[in-house]
Amino acid sequence: MTDPSQTPSTPPRKGPSKLARREERTAAWLLVPSLVIILLIAIYPLGQVFFESFREREFASSEPGRFVGLQNYQQLLSMTIRELPLELDANGQPVIEDGELQYESWVRVLPREPMRYRAVTEFGLFGNRYVLGATESDFILAVWDTLVFTVVAVFWETVLGMIIALALTARFFGRGAMRAAMLVPWAVITAVSARIWEWMLQPTRAGLFNTVGSALGISDGRTNFFGDVALQLPSMIVMDVWKTTPFMALLLLAGLSTIPKELYEAARVDGANPIRQYFSITLPLLAPTLVVALIFRTLDSLRVFDIFQVVLGNQRYSMASYAQSMLINVRDVGLSSAASVIIFVLIFAFAVGYIRAFGVNQE
Questions:
Q1: What is the percent of the chain with per-residue pLDDT over 90, rounded to a whole number?
Q2: Predicted confidence band at 363 (pLDDT cuts at 50, 70, 90)?
Q3: Residue 67, SS3?
Q4: Rounded Cα–Cα distance for residues 267 and 281 (Å)
Q5: Rounded (10°) angle between helices 283-302 and 229-256
Q6: Which of 14-23, 34-43, 273-282 has the highest mean pLDDT?
Q7: CA–CA distance, 363 with 356 (Å, rounded to integer)
Q8: If you average pLDDT over residues 196-200, what whole number do you get?
C-alpha cells in the first residue's frame, strides 16, 4: 500500500507566462486608439449633453447659461391626474347632449401655478371622467407615440421579415432577383421614401391610396392621412414597416442559412410537417439571430426622427424630433438636452431588458 505521506503534492498553479503577459500588453496598446476615438466622438458629447441638461441656456446666444439642477427634468416629466366635474345648467342639473353627460373643460381643472399644466388625454374610469395633464404635454405625447410606434412597427417588421426570409430560402426561378428587389425599400434614403409616401397619402385623389380607395368604393377619396390625428401614427408605422422590413428579412435570412439542411431531412424522414419543423428546428436555432435583429430594430425605432420630421414637422413629435424642436425652434438647450438624456435612458433600459430577458450575454 502506498504511504499517503509519500504521495506527491499538487504543483502550484503558475500565473500567465511572459509571452501571454506580453500579448496582453500589446493588445491593450492596440486598443488605445479605439478608446481615444470613442472618448472623443461618443463619451465627451454624451457627457456634455448630461451637463447641459442641468442648465438653462439659450441656443446660439452669447449669454452665459445658469445652473438650474433638475428643473428641466421636472418641467418635462411633471404630470397630474384630475377628475373632471360634470357641467351643470342654470338649474344645477347635469348637461346632457346627444345622450352623453357633458364635463367641464380641462382648462378649469388643471393647475396653472406654479407651473401651467396642459391636457395630454382624457379617459373614463369607474363612471368618472379624468384628465391627464402635463407641463410639457407635447413631450409626454411624444414618448407615448414613440413607444407605440416602436412596439407595433417592430412586431410587424419581425413577422413580415420572417415570412419573406422563409419564402426566400425555398428554391425557385428568379430567387436571386427577388432577394435583390427585396432590398430596394431599405436602400431608399429615408427622407426620399417619406416624400414618396407623403405623395401616395395625399388627402385628395392626387394621392395613390385615395385614388384606389375611391375607385374601389371604400372611401370618398378625401381621407386626410396626415391631418387626421387618429391616422397620423398608423401612417408613420406603415411607412416604417415598408422601409425596414427588408432589413429584418436580410438578418433572418442570414440566420436561416446557418441551419444545417440535414436537420430538415431527418425531420421529414420522421414525418414532421413544415409547421412542426418550424417550431422544433427553425425557431429555436434562429433565436440568437432573431434577438439581435429585435435589439437593432427596437433601439433604432426608439430614436426615430426622420419620417416624423419630414412628414409631420411640428404637428406631432417623436422623442427625437421633440428634442430637435426644443433646440432649433425654441432655442432651449437645457430642455433639449434633458429630453435627449431621457431618450438615452429609455434606450439603455430597453437594451438591458433585451439582454437579460433573452440571455444574450450568456454562452
A1: 27
A2: very low
A3: strand
A4: 9
A5: 140
A6: 273-282
A7: 13
A8: 89
Return the pLDDT at 1. Answer: 47
Average pLDDT over every residue of 55-67: 85
pTM: 0.83
Closest CA to 186 of 239, 255, 257: 239
Please identify which residue in the block is written with the cell numbers 425596414: 244
Task: Name the helix (H) or strand (E) containing 130.
Answer: strand 128-134
Q: Write down the H helix ranges in the chain.
A: 18-38, 44-52, 71-77, 137-169, 175-182, 184-187, 190-200, 208-216, 229-256, 261-269, 274-277, 283-302, 306-307, 319-328, 333-358
pLDDT at residue 149 in the model: 95
pLDDT in tens, 269-280: 888 888 888 888
Question: What is the per-residue burial (b if ≥16 Cβ within 10 Å, else e) of 203-239?
Answer: eeeebebbbebbeeeeeebebebbeeeeebbebbbbb
pLDDT at 132: 92
Query: 291: which residues sit within 8 A by CB, 6+ positions away?
Result: 354, 358, 360
Contact 281, 260 (CB under 8 A): no
**Amino acid in position 358:** F
Radius of gyration of the chain (CA): 29
The domain spans of the chain are 82-135, 138-204+231-358
Fold of 138-204+231-358: MetI-like fold (1.10.3720)
